[in-house]
Write a structure and sequence with these properties.
By secondary structure, this protein is α/β, with parallel strands linked by helices. It contains 7 helices and 7 strands. 42% of the residues lie in helices and 25% in strands. A 7-stranded mixed beta sheet has the order 1-7-6-5-2-3-4, sandwiched between helices. The radius of gyration is 15 Å and the shape is globular.
Length: 173
């Protein structure tokens, strides 16, 4: 396995495909205003260019699930036929809202689950079967960023976070 590489912004080779991807389904207004959205759209476009039909997305610190739901809808618009999304947050009220929103989604190709859990424990479990894309929201000022980065990198192949829309890619050997 090659070492982790830090990358900022759009994954390599996806800038030109971003224009094509945004014409498929632009995503909701909340998703478009999220600083991570261009990287999310580019990562999905890159996976489709690799002829992938299934994608697994984890949203760590998902709040009410808006970005994960819009990402799943966008992936479906790009032609993914199996989309698995897993949202994780520590706030029961927000997870309840996310579950209610996901229940209104009438798309059999999309399977979404939302879990109220400790973030560290949930990310450790995710490392057993790493996602294609991990989304995270850097809201915790007092957290150990190095430990969090290691957990996120183990949980997925492409990690897209904010506020700087940083991407970390783990390359397969």
């Amino acid at each position: 396995m090659e070492p982790i590489q830090n990358r900022v912004g759009v994954p390599s080779g996806a800038a030109g495909r971003l224009r094509l991807a945004t014409s498929v389904a632009a995503g909701g207004r909340a998703a478009q205003s999220d600083p991570r959205w261009p990287s999310v759209a580019a990562a999905l476009a890159e996976l489709r260019e690799q002829h992938r039909h299934a994608v697994r997305i984890v949203d760590a610190d998902c709040a009410c699930g808006t970005l994960l739901i819009e990402t799943a809808r966008y992936a479906r618009g790009l032609g993914f036929t199996a989309i698995e999304g897993h949202g994780i947050d520590g706030a029961p009220t927000l997870i309840g809202r996310a579950r209610a929103s996901a229940a209104r989604l009438q798309e059999p190709a999309i399977g979404l689950t939302f879990e109220c859990a400790d973030m560290v424990e949930a990310l450790v479990r995710e490392a057993d079967f790493p996602a294609d894309i991990v989304l995270f929201h850097c809201r915790h000022e007092g957290s150990d960023h190095r430990a969090a980065a290691a957990l996120l990198a183990a949980a997925g192949k492409v990690v897209i976070g904010d506020p700087v829309a940083t991407s970390v890619r783990r390359q397969a050997a």
